[in-house]
Amino acid sequence: MSELSRRSVLRGGRSLTPGAFYWMRYIVPALAVYVVFMAWPLLDSIRLSLYTGNHANRSFVGFSNYSRLFAGGEVATRYWSALSHTFYFFALHMLIQNVLGMLFAVMLTSPTMRGRQVYQAVIFLPTTLAVLVTGYLWKLILNPVWNGEILRAIGLGFLAKGWLGEASSALTTISLVSCWQWMGIPTMMFVAALRNISDELLEAASIEGANAWHQFARVKLPLILPVVGMIAILTFVNNFNAFDVVYAMENANGAPNYATDLIGTLFYRVGVAGQHPVGIPDTGLGAAIAAITFIILVCGVVPTLRLTQTKE
Amino acid sequence: MTKEKKTRSLRVQNMHIPSHGVLALWSLLALFPIWVLVVNSLKTRYTIYNNPFWLPEKWNFGNYREVLVSGDFLRYFQNSLIVVVLSIALVLLLGSLAAYSLANWRGRASGALYFWMIAGMMLPIKIASIKLLEMVKGLSLINTIWALVPIYVAMGIPIAVFVLTEFVRQTPGELLEAGFIDGAGRFHIFWRIVLPLLRPAMATVAIYNLIPFWNDLWFPLIFISDERSKTLLLGVTRLFGQYQTDWSKVLAVLTLSAVPVLVLYLAMSKQFIKGLTAGAVKG
């Protein structure tokens, strides 16, 4: 009834039925900004990966930027190292965020649990801060000159190490700081999903004799799995663009000795800022890094969506 | 209240002790750096090294005074405020216009446009940076804060379309009908009836975009090197370099840069949590 009257109001009624031409006028401003400043630059970046030189004189080079990236001495070494670091960074996020997020969410959604609001607000707090700010902050906290005395005093002296200065531990340390920062998002996504599960379903399960673990594994987990997919996508996209955390805690070179170099920092050096000896950005090579990232993201995101997002 | 009931509810609460332990531990971990940030910003250059995790023996507000008075901090702050407010206002305006149309126009093209626009929620705009940098140079917007606005608006539109279209679809048809019978035009209905109804959804969209816009380092970093046009976060990187030997001042800068968002968050944490998870959870 309401739907019908709404249609007659909006499409029929006294005036002529407004069609595409009418409604397009409302969309054009948003669509124009979106296409000009997002969609088109993204697609054109892929085209630029087939060229070399800058804006003024650009020449077509086919796939040579790609071959340099995959098998071209120093450049390829840096690329493969950044790519594998990025996957490591992503894997740690997935492991920690999903396990801890699910644990926190199950605890927070227990109907008799007290103080939920406070815990939620606190867990979410770091997410609202700039990565740059928390990065600088953790850099200070992890500085052994600064924390050494206190850690030794409480018998944890072994923790007073240069975690960020050693190639073996720097990337893991930075990944953990990043996980710490974003923990609020997966937690709250799981909380929202668990709240959507009807009480009758859980009651039925407990009448059937399911204990807490069975309730979780057999009832809750299958219902919140689409959220894991969503977290995977968000984390994947964000991690392939991660830059600030490395920039704040180390530098744009992924110190020490490129141990924390991610796709984001490599892209910045190569395509935007210009690398050390030359100082002029190699836009073609940068665009090739961007294009491959785009392809990796599409290959990761589309199947994940297919697998985990059931049609409703 | 019988005794039996009391002991039962006590038993239920005891069951949660491990949960409280885990959550309290993580809460401490979440708050600890913020505690370190604030208490040490109130110390001096050398006193931050004694007892780094505890309150200052002598409170020093001089860092804040110096940062606010001498540096370019207030200019950075003003630049960020202009960019963020303008961008969010434009996202809301363009987004709600598009949403009004997409919710009412039932055609095949409408559905396709909707999906094309919300796909942007998953597109990382950073990888278009090389092209965007050339465009910004071409438009002579390099080194100005105006370079940031169209990019932020483009970043914000997908979520605005996603949240607002759903919301317009749910507005009762009778309301629109009443307006139409009164002889109002469709734009009038949008402006006078739909827009006011959209307010809660617009708050969600505004909050969703506030954090990434305010906390963005990437685009200011690649577009702006002129001191007068730096945004707050880019300014923080400069001040970090300038005060590098004096961490207590660095921490004062960091605190001041985080204060606006923190205050808003403390005032309305529920809306923040809802807003920031809006893109990911259906409904």
Which overall shape of chain B is indicated by the principal axes computed on the Cα atoms?
A: flat
> H/E order of the elements of chain B?
HHHHHHHHHHHHHH
SS-derived structural category of chain B: mainly alpha
- In terms of structural class, how would the helical and strand content of chain A be classed? mainly alpha
Number of strands of chain B: 0
Share in β-strands of chain A: under 5%
State the helix count of chain A: 14
Q: Most extensive interface: pair and counts?
A: A-B, 107 and 102 residues
Q: List low-confidence stretches of chain A.
A: 1-5, 7-16
- Main beta-sheet annotation of chain B: none
Total domains of chain A:
1
Q: Reading side by side through the largest sheet of chain A, how are the strands ordered?
A: 1-2
Write down how many β-strands of chain A occur, each being a DSSP E stretch of 2 or more residues. 2
Which spans of chain B have pLDDT < 50 for at least 5 consecutive residues?
A: none
Task: Give the topology string of chain A: H per helix, E per strand.
Answer: HHEEHHHHHHHHHHHH
Describe what this molecule looks like in 3D.
By secondary structure, chain A is an all-alpha fold. Chain A contains 14 helices and two strands; from the N terminus they run H-H-E-E-H-H-H-H-H-H-H-H-H-H-H-H. In chain A, strand 1 (51-52) and strand 2 (59-60) form a beta hairpin. In chain A, helix 4 (74-108) crosses helix 8, helix 4 (74-108) crosses helix 9 and helix 4 packs antiparallel against helix 11. Chain A starts with a helix and ends with a helix. Chain B folds into two domains: 3-65, no CATH class; 72-242, MetI-like fold, CATH 1.10.3720. Chain B contains 14 helices and no strands. Chain B is mainly alpha-helical.
